[in-house]
Amino acid sequence: MRKKIPKWKKYLNEITFEYSTPAAKIFDGVLLFLIISSITIVMLDSVPSLHLKHKIFFHKLEWAFTVLFTIEYVLRIISAKQPGKFAFSFLGIVDFIAIIPTYLTLLIYTPDILLILRVLRLLRIFRIFRLSHFLKDVNFLAATLYKSIQKITIFMIFAMVLVILLGSLMYLVEKPENGFTSIPECVYWALVTLTTVGYGDVVPVTILGKAVASIVMLTGFVIIAVPLGIVTNEMAKAMRSRDAHTGICKACKMDGHDADANYCKFCGEKFNAINKKV
Amino acid sequence: MRKKIPKWKKYLNEITFEYSTPAAKIFDGVLLFLIISSITIVMLDSVPSLHLKHKIFFHKLEWAFTVLFTIEYVLRIISAKQPGKFAFSFLGIVDFIAIIPTYLTLLIYTPDILLILRVLRLLRIFRIFRLSHFLKDVNFLAATLYKSIQKITIFMIFAMVLVILLGSLMYLVEKPENGFTSIPECVYWALVTLTTVGYGDVVPVTILGKAVASIVMLTGFVIIAVPLGIVTNEMAKAMRSRDAHTGICKACKMDGHDADANYCKFCGEKFNAINKKV
Amino acid sequence: MRKKIPKWKKYLNEITFEYSTPAAKIFDGVLLFLIISSITIVMLDSVPSLHLKHKIFFHKLEWAFTVLFTIEYVLRIISAKQPGKFAFSFLGIVDFIAIIPTYLTLLIYTPDILLILRVLRLLRIFRIFRLSHFLKDVNFLAATLYKSIQKITIFMIFAMVLVILLGSLMYLVEKPENGFTSIPECVYWALVTLTTVGYGDVVPVTILGKAVASIVMLTGFVIIAVPLGIVTNEMAKAMRSRDAHTGICKACKMDGHDADANYCKFCGEKFNAINKKV
Amino acid sequence: MRKKIPKWKKYLNEITFEYSTPAAKIFDGVLLFLIISSITIVMLDSVPSLHLKHKIFFHKLEWAFTVLFTIEYVLRIISAKQPGKFAFSFLGIVDFIAIIPTYLTLLIYTPDILLILRVLRLLRIFRIFRLSHFLKDVNFLAATLYKSIQKITIFMIFAMVLVILLGSLMYLVEKPENGFTSIPECVYWALVTLTTVGYGDVVPVTILGKAVASIVMLTGFVIIAVPLGIVTNEMAKAMRSRDAHTGICKACKMDGHDADANYCKFCGEKFNAINKKV
Questions:
Q1: What is each CA distance from A225 to A198, B233, D56, D148, in whole angstroms?
Q2: What is the rounded distance in angstroms from the CA atom of residue B41 to the CA atom of residue C182?
Q3: Smallest CA–CA separation between C10 and chain B, in Å?
Q4: Does D46 touch chain A (CB under 8 A)?
Q5: Backbone angles phi, psi at A249, to 5 degrees
Q6: Minimal Cα–Cα distance from C198 to chain A, Å?
Q7: Cα dihedral across residues B235, B237, B240, B241: positive or negative
Q8: Would the CB atoms of C122 and D233 count as touching at under 8 Å?
Q9: Euclidean distance between the first and final Cα of chain A, in Å?
Q10: Fewer CB atoms inside 10 Å of the end CB: C or N, chain D?
Q11: D176 to each of B27, C48, D171, D172, D204, how far by Cα in Å?
């Protein structure tokens, strides 16, 4: 026999984990505001001049956010249908990481790494994507990227091999005086050039160096087409399959009818909710 | 009973709001020339050396443009079918903003912000897009971007989270002496690198910093594929639906059948070369 | 009665204007070599150190190329079916421009502009595209770009308006001391940033300036999708129409059969050269 | 009569050239580790500070790798079904180049070029692509690029002509004092700008120079669409043809029918759910 869930717990669960009720929407709005404020404080606190002036104020705010996030975390643990599963889910761990650094500062002193952990709070922003009208597109983009990942990995390996070979060639032709002091430096330069970032801190000076640089630039200009082609086509495929699955005609077993079709375009059978298996 | 519109008002309306008559075309041409000239003067007036030399000449021209635009605005208000609706439409407000800054200089002295407002005159250039042979493509591009906006917003939020996390990581690994003085600075650097702009005013110096920079660059090189994929596919969809009008069923007068359909998908009429007007 | 063309003229025409005969292929190869050599000499002659050392040698070579190109031009004029039409065609004018600057140096002394005109010789390289196996793809790419031109023009106007508005905003928020001295300078900076070139000669220093720069960068990162979407889709359309027109079945009047189909996929009619109107 | 292959040779061949057996997988894993380690050592050895400290250690490791790769090469030659064919295949030559430089150092002293040859070991990483679940996508990407190569070549020639012409124009309008000292320098600058790399080591200073730079930037921003469109569409075509295998006709055993065909396009057999094995 299933344990009966008390009414207050059900209500709490609705607020913290659902998104359709008005109470849940207010909760999400407040949470979004708290997350963005918290991150902003972490960022501003890292600016030396502001840190000197508002050190204590930032510290107090930080504790206020931490207490609020702790309350939220406890409420989630209590109201979760499966507390254990929630605690070790991705967002559950992020929730935990979001509050623990501030408490750790009471015990040990390691500001920089803790600071980074607090920035991870930003990941909690993905909760707002639970909002229904976003969800469909988020899933769509995630699915596309997931399907592209193997082809993009192959492209990345290929690009890395190219960058290492071209960087090594550059090490051979360009003088160390111009900043090309070692193969790793040259490979880094080749990456900066191939991705068309082009900082300009290290640039070729000799004619041969400029010739190699030209090859790297043209290569980057053209091979960027590969990940773009992969993502564009996977997205097109996902869109097509989302638009296409409208049902099979019971009479002729053919698929590929438009969503607004009243009759089968192949055998003329009239459609109704029963003959079209969706 | 509808109020009768006088003939001169009808003619004025035709010139200022239509685009097919010869008079309207001349009016549009003159307007285009005035807008571009006016913006050019605003831009040249901001160049210190030219401002010193031609200050009074620019000032006179500015007033000439303002008077002409004021006359145009008054004519539009008079001849508009619904003057109130026009005045508060987007282009109506732009028209108003285009003339008001110059008059305000007579009352108060705030040159810089007023100057920006005068540049907004440029938005009036979109009037020329009323020209019929442009209209179709403008609407097409606008519709595509409008349909892409939600997916691109999601992508932007994701990219911003990525930029903040990678920027924070950079703050952790790279020394402040090399320009990475605070998290906001590092986030700005990460954005400059991810978008492949790469100014080069702040560049990583340590090995770890260069490693993080490499991650940011490769990420930027790959994720740019996402907005491209979105826009390309939405455009493809819009093009397909525009091209899909292949024929109208003689029986039910419905449009939108596939080129290879044997039966009308709406009324079940069997197609042949005669019932489908291509 | 048509005038009879002498045999030697026919043969000359074949060599200079055709591309399928062995003699014409050799002629094209030699010409390609001469064009590239000539451009290389023009480029090397502009390098101050090389100019000092090899001035006379370059001068002699230049005259040699000019004499050879003159002979070629005269042969083309003689052998052309319609000499007048050829002389005023695009490639005819390019041929003329390719030789005239060197002769002009005997009369007047204006080295720099003449030098540029000599570089235009490079346009003659497009003659090699007459080579049959290139022609199809050149026409394909040209047709695609031609069809995209109106949409891209609209995009360009929109981008220019955006660049001017964002540049003006930058002029308002960033100090002249940091290089943002006038609106034209700021607009140039906005263009450098939007196109993700990012020279880094002028960069924002204040927080507000960096905020505006971030907007410009993100805008550039996203709007580049528009021309890509346009070209990709126009190319897709051109490819589809090239692949699709295979013929209409005489029995059922349906189109859209694959090139390798033996039977109509709609009515089962057997295809032959006669029932499929290509 | 075929010579009988001894069992040990068969087993060795399986390990070195196949990828499905557990032994072959371990062999591939070890090899991958050795290649990456070897390249890492070559790269680290080029860093002056590390070279000074760990010179002897690196030298010993280098010899260890070389001996291991030599053993592997000998095993491959012995176990290959056609040793001669393998030795002169692409990967066979790469294998040979991977070991020879170290032995050459015993005879002659030419460190830099030899060093580059050792980096070519990286090409051996493509062996891991033999791994079956990668193979399909590698072939897919390779086939796409191969099909795009002619169109991209034409685009490249066109882009090079554009870069030379725009670079020459820049040489005419911008002063040598600002770094635009010769046509080759200007052409290099135009390439840096067109590909949106934008180092910023040489930037236009005069108004005319900035105007030309703007043209180059906008050109680069738009023409990058061409290779992207080519690759995206070739990829789409390859994907479609891979997905098009929808069923085999029971009568003539032919494949490649459209999903909505009623009759086999090769033999005219009427389709039904039974004759088309999906």
A1: 18, 16, 44, 11
A2: 12
A3: 47
A4: yes
A5: -70, 130
A6: 8
A7: negative
A8: no
A9: 36
A10: N
A11: 46, 10, 8, 10, 10
Share of chain A above pLDDT 90, in %: 32
Nearest to D184 by CA among C45, C36, C118, C110: C45
Torsion on CA atoms A201, A202, A204, A205, rounded to nearest 10 = 70
Quote the pLDDT of residue D247: 52
pLDDT, average across residues C217-223:
92
Give the pLDDT band of residue B9 (cuts 50, 70, 90).
Answer: confident
Residue A239: pLDDT band (50, 70, 90) is: confident
Q: Does A60 touch chain D (CB under 8 A)?
A: no
Strands A248-249 and B248-249: unpaired
At C265-277, the pLDDT tens digits run 666 666 654 444 4
pLDDT, one tens digit per residue, over B58-100 is: 989 989 999 999 998 998 888 888 888 888 888 888 888 888 8
DSSP 8-class letter at B178 = G
Q: Do D232 and A253 touch (CB under 8 A)?
A: no
Q: Is there a contact between B122 and B35 (Cβ–Cβ < 8 Å)? A: yes
Answer positive or negative: Cα dihedral of A14, A15, A18, A24: positive
Residues in D touching C98 (Cβ below 8 Å): none
| Over residues A129-152, mean pLDDT | 80
| CA–CA separation, C168 and C188 (whole Å) | 10
Q: How far is CA A90 from CA A3, A115, A124, A127, D265, in A?
A: 27, 20, 10, 11, 52
Cα-Cα end-to-end distance for chain D: 44
Q: Percent of chain C at pLDDT above 70?
A: 81
CA-to-CA distance for C206 and C254, rounded, in angstroms?
67
CA gap D224, C230 in Å, rounded: 12
Q: What is the CA radius of gyration of chain D?
A: 28
CA angle, C252 then C258 then C261, to 5°: 75
Give chain D positions within 8 Å (CB) of B198.
197-198
Q: Is B183 touching C (CB cutoff 8 A)? A: no
Report how far apart, in Å, the C-alpha atoms of B277 and of each of A268, B97, B253, C134 are: 19, 51, 10, 40
In A148-242, the DSSP E strands lie at none
- D9/D80 Cα distance (integer angstroms): 9
What are the tokens at B84? 């109130």
**CB A189, CB A180: distance < 8 Å:** yes
Closest CA to C13 of C24, C2, C4, C3: C24
Nearest CA-CA distance, residue A269 and chain B, Å: 7
Evaluate if residue A234 carries a pLDDT over 50: yes
| R_g of chain B, CA atoms, integer Å | 28
Q: Do C129 and D154 touch (CB under 8 A)?
A: yes
**Residue B98: exposed, middle, or buried by beta-carbon count in 10 A (0-12, 13-18, 19+)?**
buried
**pLDDT at position D22, please?**
82
Identify whether the C-beta of residue A207 lies closer than 8 Å to the C-beta of residue D207: no
Asked if the Cβ–Cβ distance from C263 to D267 is below 8 Å, we say: yes
Pairing of strands D276-277, D248-249: antiparallel
pTM above 0.80, yes or no: yes
Length of chain B as a residue count:
278
Q: Among all residues of chain A, which has the CA nearest to that of B210?
A: A188
Residues B155, B160, B165, B171, CA torsion sign: positive
Q: What is the pLDDT of residues C107-123, one digit of tens each?
A: 776 666 776 788 888 88
Residues 157-176 in B contacting A (C-alpha not used; CB under 8 Å): 157, 161, 164-165, 168-169, 171-172, 176
Find the helix or strand (DSSP H, E) in which B277 lies. Answer: strand B276-277
Dihedral angle over CA of C263, C264, C265, C267, nearest 10: -120
| pLDDT recorded at residue C253 | 57
Q: Does B270 touch chain C (CB under 8 A)?
A: no
A122 φ/ψ angles, rounded to the nearest 5 degrees: -55, -30
